[in-house]
Amino acid sequence: MDNQFFKGIEKKTGVNMNDIFELANSLQNANFKDEQTVRGIIKRVSQIANKKVPKELEDKIVHSIINDGKKIDLNTISKMMNNGK
Q1: Cα gap 7→17, rounded to integer Å
Q2: Nearest one of 31, 33, 28 to 73, comparing CA atoms
Q3: Using CA atoms, how far apart are residues 38 and 13, in angstroms rounded to an integer?
């Protein structure tokens, strides 16, 4: 993909693509059974998206990932950013 594609996404979303790539790389080796790690990821997504994630929603996401074994990928991140309005 060329740089213009990513610049277009940044312009539309206001989200820096370098931040997204760094987040995606950090997910590759993350321990999703560790509550602190999962909460850190949620906070990072919240910062990148510039959207507050209420404590109740954060708790639900953490429970879903740790106890239900849900996976985090870029699609999950996108949903988290959109639902955290």
Answers
A1: 8
A2: 28
A3: 24
